[in-house]
Amino acid sequence: xxxxxxxxxxxxxxxxxxxxxxxxxxxxxxxxxxxxxxxxxxxxxxxxxxxxxxxxxxxxxxxxxxxxxxxxxxxxxxxxxxxxxxxxxxxxxxxxxxxxxxxxxxxxxxxxxxxxxxxxxxxxxxxxxxxxxxxxxxxxxxxxxxxxxxxxxxxxxxxxxxxxxxxxxxxxxxxxxxxxxxxxxxxxxxxxxxxxxxxxxxxxxxxxxxxxxxxxxxxxxxxxxxxxxxxxxxxxxxxxxxxxxxxxxxxxxxxxxxxxxxxxxxxxxxxxxxxxxxxxxxxxxxxxxxxxxxxxxxxxxxxxxxxxxxxxxxx
Length: 315
Prior knowledge:
The protein is of the alpha+beta class. The protein contains five helices and 17 strands. Helix 3 (151-169) crosses helix 4 and helix 4 packs antiparallel against helix 5 (300-306).
């Protein structure tokens, strides 16, 4: 038995991608784009760290964002190293991989550098290190905040389409946590984990005996994990080991908690994204049944896009 424990907090497609698919005009370019100042444009003193010159966090969840580093004149020999950081809560920030701007020196100052943020966190900011001499610079984060009157409807359609594609493919498309219950350990040396894209984070195996005593098994000692890419993951026995022998509790005696799904929108295959966008378009246009009477969920093009990505094993 499979039970969803933590639903996806991210969708494979963004609201902006959906609006482009539907050709929704939500305002002028000036209306849609909002520029937020992360680091003020000013002369920033020498600081051999990334904490003195830390910019303000900006909310970018579910939106497209571009970060600009605007450089003025560096002092003689001065250098400016600036990078993008990301956060779930606008408090604890970590470096975003690929978010470092080219170092600004006196040879390339008085210019603007641009980076698109393609991560998945809720907030981003910039931090800078200044060496040798003070440097004039600032950073801004430009966010596409286009809105539509029926954006709440579109949000629900994104989720509905993603869940339907998950039903068709028998996959978890984006990070989510599940509980998998078994009545007994298998006769063989492996337990196959459903839904594909098994992540090792937070995977636990527990069993409960007849008197209610729960035991948590130990990774590497009692079992090993095979993630197997986007296919079925497996829990396997180490060499010479066997599954525990116990009298099982009468209800769900073995519980496997696991995290699965692609970790970012960028990793989700485009065929899946295209299928989701097509379903959203049909649902948005028809608000129910197509004019010919065929359900929007029976689209042959959608099924063709997903055919090679379907996982066939029953659980």
